[in-house]
């Protein structure tokens, strides 16, 4: 169906509801039955085919950050195709695909196939399988750049990120913190040795358990007040109710795929009380 002029797949199941935009292969909401939203979507999000949607789960691929243009790669601003949708005993499975085209090869000169699978039920699992369909190896980085809905960033604690990180607000300077991680200002960090499961303690009201696979880093981001005010697609105080925790293949540690090889990056989230 349509949502703000975009084609989306809307999932309505007794275990959960979700919306997935074909623009970007972007999950824009996920709500398990009898739960508040798990994924944050900006109230000022722009649904423009040339831009990434602010919030949800953007797919950053085949690079992470501003190492090239467009920022965070082209996957999050590409039109994905619906491959299949079906039900199993846990909920609904939706799969999208994105393959190289003249447009993508003009930006990144390689052949590829990406399959993005969403498993929507009491938990949400997003898996991105990238395959080299070319005749020579290529490297890639990326992230499932999940924005999580929280009650109050000042009352949020995060564990499982590990201690060592590169600080993107200080030119990637190496630093470390003790756990749990709390927030008093802008945070933009690449944690280099995260645990497989990261926990967001949301104001002691609920925990979001995030389990990642196929990653080699976890990024955490909250823009805080000044940056939110500077962004046209975020309300001034909206940083208070969001935090990004990202299953990441870091640009310093790209993954190499030989012809025919595949790799899967995934993230799974479930609510615990
Ligand atoms: O993942 C953190 C980050 O790379 C930040 O540096 C910040 O810029 C954020 O992503 C959002 O990037 P975007 O290109 O969506 O504005």
TrEMBL record:
EC number: 5.1.3.15
Any GO MF annotation of the entry: carbohydrate binding
Active site residues according to the UniProt entry: 145, 246
UniProt key word Isomerase: yes
A family per Pfam: Aldose_epim
Domain of life the protein comes from: Bacteria
GO biological processes: carbohydrate metabolic process
Entry keyword set: Isomerase
Residues forming coiled coils: none
InterPro entries linked to this entry: Aldose_1/G6P_1-epimerase, G6P_1-epimerase, Gal_mutarotase_sf_dom, GH-type_carb-bd
PANTHER family: APOSPORY-ASSOCIATED PROTEIN C-RELATED, GLUCOSE-6-PHOSPHATE 1-EPIMERASE
Family (UniProt): Belongs to the glucose-6-phosphate 1-epimerase family.
Protein known as: Putative glucose-6-phosphate 1-epimerase
The species this protein was found in: Photobacterium ganghwense
């Amino acid at each position: 169906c349509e949502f703000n002029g975009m084609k989306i797949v809307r999932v309505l199941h007794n275990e959960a509801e979700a919306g997935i935009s074909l623009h970007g292969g972007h999950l824009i909401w996920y709500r398990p039955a009898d739960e508040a939203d798990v994924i944050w979507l900006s109230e000022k999000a722009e649904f423009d085919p040339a831009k990434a949607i602010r919030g949800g789960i953007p797919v950053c691929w085949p690079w992470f950050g501003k190492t090239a243009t467009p920022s965070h790669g082209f996957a999050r601003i590409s039109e994905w195709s619906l491959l299949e949708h079906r039900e199993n005993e846990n909920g609904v499975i939706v799969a999208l695909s994105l393959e190289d085209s003249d447009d993508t090869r003009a930006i990144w000169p390689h052949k590829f196939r990406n399959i993005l699978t969403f498993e929507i039920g009491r938990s949400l699992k997003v898996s991105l399988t990238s395959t080299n369909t070319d005749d020579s190896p290529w490297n890639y980085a990326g992230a499932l750049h999940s924005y999580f809905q929280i009650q109050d960033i000042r009352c949020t604690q995060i564990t499982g990120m590990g201690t060592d990180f590169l600080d993107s607000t200080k030119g990637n300077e190496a630093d470390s913190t003790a756990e749990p991680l709390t927030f008093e200002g802008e945070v933009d960090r690449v944690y280099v040795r995260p645990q497989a499961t990261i926990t967001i303690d949301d104001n002691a009201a609920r925990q979001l358990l995030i389990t990642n696979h196929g990653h080699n880093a976890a990024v955490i981001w909250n823009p805080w007040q000044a940056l939110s005010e500077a962004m046209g697609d975020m309300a001034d105080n909206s940083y208070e109710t969001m935090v990004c925790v990202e299953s990441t293949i870091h640009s310093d540690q790209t993954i190499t795929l030989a012809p025919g090889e595949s790799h899967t990056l995934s993230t799974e989230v479930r609510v615990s009380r």
